[in-house]
Amino acid sequence: MPAVDSGATLSRLWQEIQGTLLRDGIQPEGPDGPPARVTDVSLVRTHPAGYSVLFLLSASVAGCSAPLRLYAKVRRGRRYGSFTEDPDADRAERLASMEYDELVRTHRYFSAAGPGLGVVRPVAYQKEHRALFVTEAGGTDLGRMVRMDPESGIRALDLSGQWLRHYHHGVHESANEDRSPASFRRDAATRAGRLESLGVPRGSIEAMLGRFGVVADSIGSAHVPCSVNHGDFKLRHIYAHAGGIEVLDFGNIGVGDCYRDVAALLVEITVLPFGSVGRPREPVERLSEAFLHGYFVGPAPPVLGLYVALASMKKWGRRLLRWSPSGIVPIAQGVLARLGAKQAVDRTFVDRWFLERIDRALAAAAAST
Predict the structure, then answer these.
(1) Would you give the end-to-end CA distance of the chain in angstroms?
(2) Residues 238, 156: contact at Cβ < 8 Å?
(3) Which terminus of the chain faces fewer neighbouring Cβ atoms within 10 Å, N or C?
């Protein structure tokens, strides 16, 4: 894995970005607003991530009565790669520029559509640093809200469904394409191969694929809308407040089946109780229904269940190594690992948990055909 830049390197990068901000200013009202001079800017904190580093800033801007809190997202060419020695710097700049352009396009659409649905406001882009600047999202991220205040989370998820429907079919144009049972079988086989490589027993995988194939055949060929996908539509990328919701992080956009975005968030909701310790079970079904109510005009199509099953397989693989959001279970996992028993415990719990959820998605799809 490429070396991560040192704190001194990130500090120099921040100083260069700071100087460019003071020189060029920003557009505090958004991409169609007038430019304004930045009179002072300070760094609040730094958060290095896989393909980027995030700087949270406090900026004093001419004409603004209070400092603006902004995020600067600087793109890397490689996961945990270097900013100073990056052989993929040109590619990283293209991706950063594409993300900023997508933010601008989406911001314009929802600004014209009225209040309630929106995105974090794009205010500047620095090509030389492959850095995009957005306002800090207001309110609370949905991952926290649905745990602390499920009733408010239900209302926000209905809005999230509306937002995603507008994104697929309003911000961008969509077109229906045919998906055959064979194509779904291939996708499932690919996911299953990854799970088997992670140690899931072959017998469990073969049984799951058999059930998946039966349901896919019962649904038959399906007309599926395709459009630009957000690609990372997660609870923590949606912020809710009294006025509505704001969506962020457009770094993984791409053309694909719209139901992939829908299924990804449904699986995020499904795994909320997963590995919870001392926390009441969230109303998963009500949360899911609220999101689907916002996205679909009428009932969800049976084929969505296949996408949910596929998305569950993907999440399953990612959860095999770290399966609890609490601080207690990972400690126990460390002890089990030293005793040589961690893998067996993980298989017993994780595999059974995800197999049950996949079976539920397939059963719901079969029942609605």
Answers:
(1) 47
(2) yes
(3) N
Sole residue written with tokens 């009565």: 65
Residues 108, 118: Cα–Cα separation, whole Å: 9
Per the DSSP assignment, residues forming a β-bridge with 247 are: 119, 238
d(CA 193, CA 310): 12
170 phi and psi angles, rounded to 5 deg: -120, -55
**In whole angstroms, what separates CA 41 from the centre of its chain?**
29
Q: Is the pLDDT of residue 321 over 80?
A: no
H or E segment at 355? helix 352-367
C-alpha dist (Å) from residue 120 to 86, 107, 250, 328, 340? 28, 8, 10, 34, 46
Where do we find the tokens 């992939």?
A: 260
On whether the CB atoms of residues 284 and 270 are closer than 8 A, the answer is: yes
Question: Which residues, at least 6 apart from 102, have a Cβ–Cβ distance to it below 8 Å?
Answer: 250, 253
Question: Residue 90 burial (CB < 10 Å; 0-12/13-18/19+)?
Answer: exposed
Q: Are 307 and 259 in contact (CB under 8 A)?
A: yes
pLDDT in tens, 27-61: 999 999 999 999 999 999 999 888 899 999 999 99
Residue 325: what residue type?
P
Q: Work out the widest C-alpha separation in the chain, in whole angstroms.
A: 66
Location of structure tokens 């995030």: 54
Give the CA distances from residue 14 to residues 18, 46, 73, 95, in Å, rounded to whole numbers and listed in that order. Answer: 6, 9, 11, 20
Dist CA 231 CA 247 (whole Å): 12
For 226, phi then psi, to 5°, come to: -120, 140
Rounded to the nearest 10°, the torsion over CA 134, 135, 138, 142 is 10
Sign (positive or negative) of CA dihedral 193, 197, 203, 207: negative
**Contact (Cβ atoms closer than 8 angstroms) between residue 71 and residue 43:** no
**Joined tokens for residue 228:** 């630009």
Over residues 174-198, the pLDDT tens digits come to 999 999 999 999 999 999 999 998 8
> In angstroms, rounded to a whole number, what is the distance separating the alpha carbons of residues 309 and 210?
13
